[in-house]
TrEMBL record:
Compositionally skewed regions (Basic and acidic residues) per UniProt: 624-647
WD repeat spans: 280-313, 327-367, 368-399, 546-562, 581-607
InterPro entries referenced in this protein's UniProt entry, alphabetically: LisH (IPR006594), WD40/YVTN_repeat-like_dom_sf (IPR015943), WD40_repeat_dom_sf (IPR036322), WD40_rpt (IPR001680), WD_repeat-ST_regulator (IPR051350)
Source organism, top-level taxon: Eukaryota
Protein name (record): WD40 repeat-like protein
SMART domains xref list: WD40 (SM00320)
Pfam families associated with the record: LisH_WDR26, WD40
Length: 657
């Protein structure tokens, strides 16, 4: 197949070719471009020892790459040269410099780069001034960075006297606050070079510290003189992020298979999990809560039937679902679940009790009773060392992984409904009802009914009709246990989840809203509407490859999915029977699977369609009767498949504990 002939639509005039390359415009003697920090250290600037003849210089009309373009040709070519050097095409970069007449950087910039990478610090400071960096541009700050590197290298090589000289005569005059020098001066007491590198968080003169210093210094030098590292890649990454932000169904990892330079990125909507592929129906009453294990291999469900079921979920290549554990040693309906970081312990709550389960054997490890009101929230701390419990008795307790109490936050300002710990281990976000009135004890005989009402009943009526409840979201500093932010909200709050980057808190808010709070700014970032919530406890979640979806159940028996950042309602998924969809949970390892549970006693797994099955057909399948399903021979204790529904109802072969 013959390649197509080239067309020069934007350059109708033939370029003029000169038999010999003239001196590039940026420097009369270009040399030494593309050192270690920007690629390789081979001969450059249009000539090399392998060149047999000069490369003719091509002179094109105009200053942009195309007649109808705003992109400057010189900038574009210099970025191409930098990219070629970075990936190893040194001869190609040299040829392009000679042919275009542009060089990546001037000889003075190359000299400055050499001085930093070779550690000739006096020459580096002089070269910095020759590049036109003035005091207004941060010359003193730049020199401070150089002197600090010099100081650390002197200590590393054992030249303590020289290091002290740098500290007193170079660093001290540059620091107006002496307190900033204390961490540096304390490094003099390090026992050896390894101790110095560890305490300074520095990898030494022979590591990457000089290259990182060069990157830091580039912020003081005009980018037109010294191009930032990997600039072309940075621009491509920005284009990729922009395209992803416009792809409202984005749910794919960024790999060469999912992101090509040849076309704009868009995700196939058929890959979005909108079809019910498995229905789990073993619970005999309302299913209130769902939690995936961190491995994504197990799904735990809690029910009003006083039991917890752990389901085993196969890998993506073989997604078999089976009942793994049936934990029935609960005296009351089960409200909360939490997996340990290594998935070896599962916590469950029923009334004032917390139960710790061994997830390998199903054995009950310990029963904890440390609250006087129903336990409303359980959360493991991100380092796996223990967990936090909270209750309507206004107490927050910290427990070790052995189940022994390590700390207590005392009496808080709210009757806590739910809480979550940020993944960066800095904040705890609690929601609940303001405790302006004294707590009234609940008779033990009425405890189960009170708990059921608290979890899935109507909490909007004030006790004895005395007042309208005030609901609060309180953000605590996890170290000091002091509130950083307290927000009063009008409607009932029922659940809180934290984004993986610790920035956002997702709060279900009655009536009929889900709120996204920015924990960094303390402001409401977005509201999601459309679902129905007035009476019941409904738990929402983040989902997708980047947590860019918001998913919530609803009292109309449907599942609602929004785009997190744009607030667009993407899907309304039908399938559950009568009653509320109480909780949703997205698989942390399989970004194309999430689960929902309902008052109809079932759990549904949602995945992408196979063979073009759409959400409407799945919804129609969901309304088949049990008699219809029994004829399909799917009541065998396991379910798998896409584009159809499998039912798991038989538990005769499962472990019941």
């Amino acid at each position: 197949m013959r390649p197509p002939e080239r067309e020069y639509e934007s350059n109708p005039t033939s370029p003029r070719i000169h038999p010999q390359a003239r001196s590039p415009s940026l420097s009369p003697s270009p040399k030494a471009n593309g050192h270690v920090a920007n690629g390789h250290g081979s001969p450059m600037n249009g000539s090399s020892k392998h060149s047999k003849s000069p490369v003719p210089r091509v002179e094109l009309p105009g200053a942009t790459i195309y007649d109808d373009s705003y992109i400057d040709r010189e900038e574009y070519i210099r970025l191409v040269i930098q990219s070629l050097r970075d990936i190893g095409y040194i001869e190609s970069a040299a040829t392009l410099e000679a042919e275009s007449g542009y060089v990546m950087e001037t000889s003075r910039v190359a000299e400055f780069r050499r001085c930093i990478l070779e550690g000739t610090w006096s020459e580096a400071e002089s070269a910095l001034e020759h590049l036109g960096v003035s005091e207004n541009d941060g010359l003193w700050e730049a020199k401070c960075h150089i002197s600090q590197q010099k100081y650390l290298e002197c200590l590393e090589s054992g030249r303590t006297s020289m290091a002290l000289h740098v500290l007193r005569n170079e660093l001290a005059p540059l620091h107006t606050d002496p307190e900033l020098l204390h961490p540096l001066s304390s490094l003099v007491m390090c026992t050896d070079a390894a101790d110095l590198r560890q305490k300074a968080g520095w990898d030494g003169a022979h590591g990457s510290s000089r290259r990182r210093l060069l990157v830091n210094l580039q912020s003081y030098i005009p980018s037109s003189l010294m191009i930032p590292p990997r600039r072309f890649v940075t621009l491509l990454d920005q284009a990729r992020l922009q395209q992803i932000s416009q792809c409202i169904y984005h749910n794919a990892p960024i790999t060469p298979q999912h992101f090509s330079l040849y076309a704009d990125h868009t995700c196939d909507t058929d890959l979005f999990p909108r079809v019910t592929t498995t229905i789990l129906q073993v619970h005999t009453d309302e299913v209130w809560s769902l939690e995936w294990s961190h491995s994504g291999k197990f799904l735990a469900s809690a029910s009003k039937d006083k039991s917890v079921i752990v389901w085993s979920v196969g890998p993506n290549s073989n997604p078999e679902i089976s009942l793994y554990l049936h934990l029935q040693d609960h005296q009351f309906p089960v409200g909360c679940l939490a997996w340990s970081l290594d998935d070896t312990i599962l916590l469950s709550s029923c009334e004032q009790l917390i139960k710790m389960w061994n997830t390998e054997s199903g054995a009950l490890i310990r029963t904890i009773e440390a609250h006087t009101e129903p336990v409303s929230a359980l959360a493991w701390v991100p380092d796996g060392s223990g967990f936090i419990s909270a209750s309507q008795d206004r107490k927050i307790n910290l427990w070790g992984s052995d189940g022994k109490q390590r700390d207590s936050w005392g009496i808080t300002a709210t009757r806590i409904i739910d809480l979550a710990v940020t993944p960066d281990f800095t904040r705890l976000v609690a929601i609940g009802e303001s405790a302006r009135d004294p707590i009234l004890s609940t008779p033990r005989s009425d405890a189960a009914a009170a708990s059921a009402t608290a979890r899935n009943g109507n909490n909007n009526t004030a006790p004895n009709g005395s007042r309208t409840p005030e609901y609060l979201m309180i953000v605590y500093d996890l170290t000091t246990k002091q509130p950083e932010l307290s927000v009063s909200l009008g409607g009932q709050l029922t659940s809180v989840k934290i984004s993986s980057d610790s920035q956002y808190a997702l709060v279900n808010h009655a009536p009929d809203e889900v709120h996204l709070w920015d924990l960094f700014t303390g402001r409401l970032a977005r509201k999601y509407t459309g679902q129905r919530q007035g009476r019941h406890i409904i738990r929402s979640c983040f989902g997708g490859v980047d947590g860019n979806f918001v998913v919530s159940g609803s009292e109309d028996g449907k599942v609602y999915v929004w785009h997190r950042d744009r607030g667009i309602l993407l899907d309304v998924l039908a399938g559950h029977g009568l009653g509320s969809v109480n909780s949703v949970a997205w698989n942390p390892r399989n970004t194309q699977m999430f689960a929902s549970c309902s008052d109809d006693c079932t759990i549904r797994l949602w995945e992408p369609s196979a063979g073009g099955t759409d959400g409407d057909s799945a919804s129609r399948l969901a309304h088949r009767t049990a008699d219809d399903r029994s004829h399909e021979g799917e009541l065998n204790g396991k379910g798998k498949g896409k584009g159809r529904e499998s039912w798991v109802e038989d538990i005769s072969a499962s472990r019941i504990l």
